[in-house]
What does this fold into?
Amino acid sequence: GAGVSQSPSNKVTEKGKDVELRCDPISGHTALYWYRQSLGQGLEFLIYFQGNSAPDKSGLPSDRFSAERTGGSVSTLTIQRTQQEDSAVYLCAEGNNEQFFGPGTRLTVL
Amino acid sequence: AQKITQTQPGMFVQEKEAVTLDCTYDTSDQSYGLFWYKQPSSGEMIFLIYQGSYDEQNATEGRYSLNFQKARKSANLVISASQLGDSAMYFCAMREGRRGYNKLIFGAGTRLAVHP
It folds into this structure.
């Protein structure tokens, strides 16, 4: 994707642990989005940011999921007490119309 | 009801031929946007083409064109002169509401295989 980096690229964790996923957009768009893609599925919207505010958190699947964005740039998605069903690729995107995606973080919960 | 429907789980095409990937959508909004993304086996999501609901002309980007039929609520992707590198998953997506800060709703995708 144009200007979006994500880290780590892969994360393996044990059930019950907390994980933090990072998105670092470069292009300076004010809108930033998180999606997740389970194996063989389409993308599922999680949350979007306009600047540092999150006007739409409707896709977060449970209160174990939270996200923040600071300085209108870097965003972190935190999953507490991970469960096996959280295993997926987590994708970050930026853009005010067309959305440009990062390479994703593949999360595996054992 | 599904907002974005891609009825073809898999398609194959001979190299250099054209292929159409189907997408139908459901919205009550008058203002919306339609997008196509390509996802190769590497996993990255690559933006291909965009069509706004008020755009009178079908969008084109190189070998990609979007066959927009508003009354039928369809937004099919046409790839001309297929290349081996076109083999990938293709996702249709919709933004409801006016252009701006809106989430995308994705279809389930179509896997395209281009044969030599």
The mean pLDDT of chain B is 94. The first strand of chain B starts at residue 4 and ends at 5. Chain B touches chain A through 24 residues (CB under 8 Å). The CA atoms of residues 6 and 23 of chain B lie 5 Å apart.
